[in-house]
């Protein structure tokens, strides 16, 4: 007898294109394709739409305006998600699944108030907060969950080692229909306004952030320009809820000191948040994608770049060392600008020796959203056996 479809609520912290939000949307689609009923809940400031369409129902939790500080911003989003859930009978869902600390706290509060029986939580990564309220919110969002999933073995191990939380690994996927090596004339138009004319183009995705190690990449780019005078660094995206203004100012000040102009057609292009349809074209336009982060949950950008036929320079740290090797990437030491610059140069010489014929396709086939959905369903089913009615 065929099991009935699950009623699943997936909760994310934003409508903007961040890794955890992409994960939510792609997992939702795969669960929907498998026959399950999925609703996505996300806070929305001023009625902003989800950055990418979905076949699933999307409930936007109304947030009146951006708050003046991070604590207030988080509180307003927790409150908005709670209100949206309560208006949609949260107890009617078989699974309530938080993808971040904001939605995790909304569910933790509803559980405390008796509105839901429990919830599960995916930890993509944790941040190093110093504000006590943020520290406590981050802790509660995983500590109060009935089950914790992580997108890499590195974070699964860290959750147990550092926090005593028994988690399980459920990896990401990559959309091989969206990210492809196929180029056509439509790639040119969405990129024209940025003046992306470099030879070569170094692409970094995720905006200017300390976690993304953007300042160290800037130093490496300056070294690269010593041998590749027409190189261009494109920093794409950056729609974050956290305050990165101080770090961004340091980036702009250092670029000025290095005589590297920033703007359309300049040595450095900072795009800001982008329309969703621009990213596949941007991956294909780049000569190399740099992912020299200091901390990542998984690093979806790496798979998206490789699926687009673009070499990647990657920090030689976990979680990357779990699923990458020298056949599919060029390694760099993230704290060493010379190491990053050297890896960039290697990637530009015969595409870094990356095996796009065999090793890359084999890697990409290991990570599918369909497989991730199957793994989630098995874990949901197991969790429901132990959740009190």
Automatic annotation (TrEMBL):
Keyword Magnesium part of the UniProt annotation: no
Domain Glycosyltransferase subfamily 4-like N-terminal: from-to ranges: 18-178
Molecular function in Gene Ontology: glycosyltransferase activity
Listed Pfam families: Glyco_transf_4, Glycos_transf_1
Protein name: MSMEG_0565 family glycosyltransferase
Region forming the signal peptide: none
Alphabetical list of NCBIfam families matching this protein: MSMEG_0565_glyc
Native species: Paraburkholderia lacunae
């Amino acid at each position: 007898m065929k099991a009935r479809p699950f009623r699943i609520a997936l909760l994310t912290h934003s409508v903007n294109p961040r890794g955890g939000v992409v994960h939510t949307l792609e997992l939702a689609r795969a669960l929907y394709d498998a026959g399950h009923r999925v609703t996505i809940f996300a806070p929305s400031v001023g009625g902003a739409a989800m950055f990418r369409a979905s076949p699933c129902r999307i409930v936007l939790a109304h947030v009146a305006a951006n708050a003046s500080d991070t604590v207030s911003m988080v509180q307003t989003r927790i409150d908005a998600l709670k209100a949206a859930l309560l208006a949609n009978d949260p107890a009617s869902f078989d699974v309530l699944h938080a993808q971040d600390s904001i939605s995790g706290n909304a569910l933790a509060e509803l559980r405390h108030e008796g509105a839901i029986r429990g919830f599960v939580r995916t930890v993509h990564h944790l941040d190093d907060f110093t504000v006590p309220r943020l520290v406590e919110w981050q802790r509660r969002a995983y500590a109060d969950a009935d089950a914790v999933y992580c997108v890499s073995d590195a974070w699964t191990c860290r959750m147990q080692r550092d926090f005593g939380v028994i988690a399980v690994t459920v990896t990401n996927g990559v959309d091989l229909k969206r990210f492809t090596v196929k180029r056509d004339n439509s790639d040119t138009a969405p990129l024209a306004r940025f003046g992306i004319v470099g030879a070569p183009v170094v692409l970094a995705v995720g905006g200017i952030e300390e976690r993304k190690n953007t300042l160290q990449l800037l130093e490496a780019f300056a070294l690269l320009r010593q041998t590749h005078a027409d190189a261009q660094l494109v920093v794409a995206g950056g729609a974050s809820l956290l305050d990165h203004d101080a770090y961004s100012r340091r980036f702009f000040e250092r670029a000025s000191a290095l005589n590297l102009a920033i703007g359309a057609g300049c040595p450095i292009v900072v795009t800001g948040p982008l329309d969703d349809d621009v990213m596949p074209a941007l991956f294909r336009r780049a000569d190399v994608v740099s992912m020299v982060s200091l901390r990542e949950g998984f690093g979806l950008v790496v798979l998206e770049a490789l699926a687009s036929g673009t070499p990647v320079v990657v920090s030689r740290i976990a979680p990357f060392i779990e699923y990458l090797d020298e056949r599919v990437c060029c390694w760099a030491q993230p704290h060493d600008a010379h190491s990053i610059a050297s890896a960039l140069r290697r990637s530009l010489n015969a595409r870094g020796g990356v095996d796009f014929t065999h090793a890359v396709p084999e890697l990409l086939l290991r990570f599918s959203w369909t497989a991730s959905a199957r793994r989630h369903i098995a874990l949901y089913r197991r969790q429901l056996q132990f959740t009190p009615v």
